[in-house]
Amino acid sequence: MYANIQDISNIRQEGGKMTVVGYCRLSRDEDKENYASIEEQKRIIKDYANTRNWIVEDKDFYIDDNVSGYTFNRPEFLKMIEGVKGGKIDVVISKDLSRIGRNNGRVLVLIDEFKNMQKNLILVSEMGGTYDVLNDRDDTIGITTWFNERYVKDCSRKTRDHMYSKQKTGRLVMGNYYGYIKDKEDVTKLYVDEEIRPVIELIYKLYIEEGLGRKKICDILNSKYDYPTPSVYYQRKHLERGRIYKHPVQKLWSTYMISNILNNDVYCGNLRTHKKKTVSIRGRAIKLPKEEHFVFENHHEAIISKETFKLAQKIKERKAKTKSTSGTRKRNYYFSGLCRCGDCGFGISGITITRKQGQKGYECSQYRTYGKARCKCHEIKENDMIIHLKEFLKFTKQKYIEQIEKIEIDTKINKEQVNKEKIKFELETLMAEYKVLLNQKVKDLTSSTNEYQKQMIENTYRELEIDKTNQIEKLQQILKKEEQEISKEKIKKLKTAIEYFDDIIESEMPSRYVLENIIDTIWIYSDKTLKIDLKVDIEKLV
Predict the structure, then answer these.
(1) The dihedral of CA 247, 250, 256, 257: what is its sign?
(2) CA-CA distance, 240 to 182, in Å (whole number)?
(3) Which domain holds residue 235?
(4) Radius of gyration (Cα) for the chain, nearest Å?
């Protein structure tokens, strides 16, 4: 069923000839048993054109290779449609409708546009023969376009299911990882890039130990070091493989890059997959909550320890919660993010005390912003806080030493064994009570002849039995623990705390890393007294 070209009234003629072009498309999602290659499509189109005495040369083809048919945003396709609408193309020949597109609604709209423009679209192998837009009936064309769209959606679903399966088992490592190199033979394996290891370690050191913010870290990396930014690094790796890096390249470090590195647990040896998903074909990927991620710990060599990574997250959370103006300051404050106002409970800001030779200090953020309407003056010098902290730690250290000696003495006199005997006695008593309870239950059930009464007895004794068995299980679990090991663990924690105390007491300026490990909150009151909450509490520990 060929088009009757003589009936087309407005076909543009150039020297008595129509402008006829061919369109070919191929994508990765094609059915390997049924697809036709680009060259095969060109051959089919040329053979058909010859039967109509039309000449379609290689220069007359518009070809989109490896482009999905679901999108109409194809370079050559758009150029061709522009030619049709501009009156430069009269006839478009393609192998079949699926080459034109697999989006049902948009394909039908395109067919109507061809009819309205009186331009012809000919599909050589469609609907059991050749389909001519201007001259053939299209009663079932909607079914064909629907089937084509269903095909690409099914391919998309299968691809997503396959990716999900690989993500769930850690077999899919997508994208690039700054500081890691993929194994050429097995891309699921990651190895540390020794060129990048130092900058990752430096960023965590500056953030944790020196308490610097992301902006300050950027300034240091951009002025003092020559480490490549992630985008420069990725571009270099692409060039080494003979590929083109199509994303923007930033040569200067930015706070966004620092955040990505500080928030990425790949640097402590974890592989995290299923972080995003697409909900439609070629749709935008949406981020998934952490609860839906698949995390594989100890997947590869870590650059920083898990403890260091967790500490960085705690610092980030504390900074996010602190309602102060500390983000505007340019100086580094040892206690930033650790202090709160003892009177109003709000954050404390680092300040410069101009009347005291520009010394660093701290002040209630509410008082700084609103004055006495919200809080009182809390101004205190940083040096004074360091002195207060050292004196407090000297006093606390002595309490810890006394506690260690007490635990060691208790161990020597074998107090744990005494506790064990007591627990054993309690356990034997509970077992005896449980047996008596069961015997009494049997007697009560035997003496009862009413089914309702028997049910009531069963329910009543069931609650008593559960209570007794729970008590027995708890005591049995306690007996399994080695009290001596528990004591050793207590001593180890106390001694670690003392080592941190000594580090602060003996140093001129405290290490930020040490402060983060021992201090939970420093409460500053308007009378300049301090209340220091430690992360290690003797009473809770013992």
Answers:
(1) positive
(2) 14
(3) 180-309
(4) 38
CATH number of the structural domain spanning residue 68: 3.40.50.1390
Contacts from 251-256 at CB under 8 Å and sequence distance 24+? 252/218, 252/222, 253/217, 253/218, 253/221, 253/222, 253/229, 254/218, 254/229, 255/214, 255/215, 255/218
Residue 14 gets which letter from DSSP? B
Whether 385 is in a domain gets the answer no
How many C-beta atoms lie closer than 10 Å to residue 24's C-beta? Answer: 23
What's the one-letter identity of residue 176? N
Q: What CATH number is attached to the domain comprising 250?
A: 3.90.1750
Strand, helix or coil at 295? Answer: strand
- Would you call 460 helix, strand, or coil by DSSP? helix
- pLDDT (tens digit, 9 = 90+) per residue, 437-492? 777 777 777 777 777 777 777 777 777 788 778 888 887 777 666 555 555 565 56
| DSSP calls for 386-417 | HHHHHHHHHHHHHHHHHHHHHHHHHHHTTHHH
Q: Where are the alpha helices (DSSP H) in 118-140?
A: none
Per-residue confidence (pLDDT) for residue 347, from 0 to 100 = 86
Where a domain ends, among 104, 126, 157? 157
Q: What amino acid occupies position 523?
A: W
Bridge partner list, 314: none
Burial string for 497-512 (b: 16+ CB within 10 Å, else e) reads bbebbebbeeeeebbb
Residue 18's SS3 state is coil
478: CB partners within 8 A, 6+ apart: 423
Q: What pLDDT digit, counting tens, does each position of 306-339 carry?
A: 999 999 988 888 877 764 444 444 567 878 888 8
Question: Among 512, 532, 533, 523, which Cα is nearest to 312's?
Answer: 512
Please give the structure tokens belonging to residue 395.
């006093």
**211, 109, 175: which is closest to 514 by C-alpha?**
211
Q: Which one of 250, 279, 309 terminates a domain?
A: 309
Q: How far apart are CA 359 and CA 158, in angstroms?
A: 65
- Sheet strands (E) in 459-529: 519-524
Percent of all residues in the chain with a pLDDT value above 90, rounded to a whole number:
13
User: Domain for residue 173, yes or no?
Assistant: no
Query: Beta partners for 191?
Result: 181
CA–CA distances in Å: residue 348 to residues 210, 365, 381, 392: 19, 5, 13, 20
CA nearest neighbour of 155 among 316, 31, 313? 31
Which residues, including other chains, have CB under 8 Å from residue 225's CB and lie 6 or more apart?
Answer: 199, 202
Question: What per-residue confidence (pLDDT) applies to 229?
Answer: 92
